[in-house]
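User: ok so my PI wants both of these folded by tonight, can you help

Assistant: No problem, let's get them done. Here's the first:
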Amino acid sequence: MTTTASAVLKDPLGLHARPSVKLVKLAKTFDATVEIAADPEGPWTAAKSLIKVMKVKARHGTALHVRATGADEAAAVAALVELVEADFPEDGSDG
């Protein structure tokens, strides 16, 4: 089974370096295979690879689609969507 959801990017610069690092760091905390896409039809990109995430080039206002497959897929998708919806906050935690 695969869990999918999306959230709109609020950052004026879209998915740039800082949010990409946060997204990858969070994705790596899950066992599930996690992927993102700027379009629901893809192409889908491995969310645990910073280089690949940076290549997504999702702009401000784009719905970032997240999907995951594996043991903790629902938690992974929920956490990444929450991160995007919160606009990648600077909370001081290292995850």
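One down. Here's the second:
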Amino acid sequence: MSYFDFDALHIEDRKMNEAKQLSLQLAPTQASLLIVGDAGVGKTSLARYIYTKSRSPRLYVLECRNPGGFDFSRVDGGTLMIEDLDCASSALQTELMKLAERTDGTKPRFISTSRRDLRAMVKQDQFRQDLFYKVAVVHLELPRLEDRSVDFQNIVNFILEVSQIMHGKSGLRLAADAYSRLNSWNWPGNIRELENVIERSVVLAKNSTIGPEAIQFEAVAEDMSVDFAPGMSLSEVEKRLILQTLELTAQNRTRAAQMLGISIRTLRNKLNEYKESVV
């Protein structure tokens, strides 16, 4: 998250709490850390949090997706935060290895993030084994937002509060059905997506209550290839929409029904119709 605060937010999820406590334990050390997790779970935020809790005098940031002429010669101790290490090219890995092997006191501490399992990449000869051992002394794995149901309401309230501060608003609240709509989504973009959805609802709010119509999920258009075409019957459009919504929710009928705005009974009846229509 762009404004996630691990100190301000009360965390109940066991895996996330373990990651936070281990981060605090390791922050003042020089151990190289690798933070692994899906896009949007908060890897970069945790990396910066660890840095703020450390004794490191300076921070350098290397984005492996777009290194942009990063000058390794300017690195002088401190902490090097490496974003998306799994995207590092062979040339970039070579430069990082040179940095890791410095013996003149200018070697930085490494705090890296990755969406992929680097150990698997090493086995597939996609990542240098020697570099892996240098940058991944300790692993921290962050869970998906979908797997943090116990924290969901706290996270929503936190983002809602911070979004209001950012945009000069106050007193906004989510209607019960708006929260239900948020809670029914499976959040493929994790906390980053939740942050985007809530911030948009705050910006567009016309009164103190944010209703369900303000909760918009762009991921529906991005993740669902709904191949509608002119001349298609309404029943066929309905069928494709229902089946692809089920696919998006990993066949969770309750969530699919909530997203479609129909009852679970109606959804069940529709699915039975589709089965009966199969020759």
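The chain has twelve helices and seven strands. The two ends are 49 Å apart (CA to CA). Good luck tonight!
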